[in-house]
Design goal:
Helix 1 packs antiparallel against helix 2 and helix 6 packs antiparallel against helix 7. The protein folds into two domains: 86 residues, Hypothetical Protein Yqey, Chain: A, domain1; 55 residues, Orthogonal Bundle (Arc Repressor Mutant, subunit A). It is an all-alpha fold and 152 residues long.
Length: 152
Amino acid sequence: MSLSDKINTGLKESMKSKDKGRLQALRAIKSALLLAKTDGSGEELTEADEIKLLQKLVKQRRDSAEIYKSQKRDDLYVQEVMEADTIAEFLPEQMGEKELKAAIEKIISDTGASSMKDMGKVMGIASKQFAGKADGKSISIMVKSLLASSQV
């Protein structure tokens, strides 16, 4: 089942159950997908493009939630977190910290990276390999810590 089909099914179920929060999040996904498909480039959206788009939507919601939390706007904070969680349901399962660490250690040993100078090389490979399975921030933090510890 394609992402669009899953979204449409979720929309129908949310309308029937009158779940306004979930409905709003699903409509946001559908809108973003539609805008990406009709951006004028004439290219079809690949599954990787859809995953990137969903990750972007989740990141936007989480960033907004942090802002609302710092401004003590709990009503908006709760809404943003709920939308982010709903959108994240359609992403592939995220890698655990141990699994990510082991995979990055393998990339570091394969590339022969030994210092922070090699971070770009490792990040390039890791970002492509873990697209949709881990967010860039957690990959970056893990690469930095592993390269810093290998310098000692």
